[in-house]
Amino acid sequence: MAILGGLCLTLIPLVKYFLKATPKDLLTSFGEHSTKEETNHEPGFFEGLKLMLAHRYLICIFAANFIYELIVTIFDFNFKLAAGTAYTGVALSNYLSLYASSVNTVSLLCLLLGISNVTRYLGVGVALASMPIIVGFALFGFLTLDSLSFLFALMVGSKAINYALNGPALKQLYIPTTSDVRFKAQAWIETFGSRASKEAGSLFNMLLRPMQSIFGAVAGRAHYLTLSGAIGFPLLVLWFAIAVYLGRNFHKAIDEKKVIC
Q1: pLDDT for residue 141
Q2: What is the pTM of this model?
Q3: Which one of 20, 77, 140, 157 is at 20 to 30 Å from 224 when CA atoms are compared?
């Protein structure tokens, strides 16, 4: 713990060096010269919501984040349920600790092996569009394979690819936007929007027990999985279309050096 505390303190000189070494033009906001909007107060709940609803581009960013979180929440619930069946007590804690460590390790390996080059050389659009395809294969495996080991690999892969590829790509989408969007709408999407998507996934997961009570343990789970596929695959198609839309508008704004919203 002392070593970790010391490492945290090293962030202070590192940030100072970063600000000193980085050219000032790279620290200038993309829209600073094209808009004079100022943010004079902290963003509120309704300010961010109204700003997001006023622009299709921001609604699509919210939808891309929402669909991913919803589907992964379903994966996570079933993974934790299967892990709780196979392990109990300290053994369960050790297994979940191994899972968390594996997510961080795989994420780091993805970054070290250059997964960011997908965004650098192929573009943000390709990075965004690849996510629903990857999650689609994961959803198919989730619906067809009943294995804790597979769920473990699925969760590690889904979380790691999001941290290493999807998350950074979504952040870049805010480059051609104004300060109001970055401080208000982005804050709403990443706080309230993210929590709402997880809550939606949790509400869906609550259907498992009533279905098992009505149809029986096996048949109820089968109905639950069928409903998961019926909702999940259409959402993935929508997510893919949204990713294409976001990628095209982002590259157009960057090429023309225009602010989208």
Answers
A1: 87
A2: 0.81
A3: 157
- Domains defined for the chain, CATH in brackets: 50-256 (1.20.1250.20)
Segments in the chain forming alpha helices (H): 2-9, 11-21, 45-53, 56-86, 89-112, 117, 124-144, 148-161, 167-172, 179-180, 186-188, 194-205, 208-215, 217-256
DSSP state at residue 83:
H
With the C-alpha atoms ordered 40, 43, 46, 50, is the resulting torsion angle positive or negative? positive
Q: Which residue has the tokens 């609803």?
A: 53
C-beta contacts of 79-86 below 8 A and 24+ residues apart:
79/148, 79/151, 79/152, 79/154, 79/155, 82/148, 82/151, 83/148, 83/151, 83/152, 86/148
Give the up-direction half-sphere exposure of residue 2: CA atoms within 13 A in the CB hemisphere.
0
Q: CA-CA distance, 224 to 249, in Å (whole number)?
A: 37
- Whether residue 139 contacts residue 150, with contact meaning beta carbons closer than 8 Å, is answered with no
Torsion-angle region of residue 38: left (phi > 0), alpha (psi -120 to 50) or beta? beta
* Tokens linked to 91: 């053994």
* Cβ burial 78-114 (10 Å sphere, 16+ → b, else e): bbeebbeeeeeeeeeeeeeeebeebbeebbeebeeee
As averages over each run of 10 residues, the pLDDT of the chain (261 residues) reads 91 90 74 49 66 86 90 88 86 88 86 77 84 89 85 86 83 84 80 83 88 86 88 92 91 84 80
One-letter amino acid of 70? L
Note whether 239 and 68 are within 8 A (CB).
yes
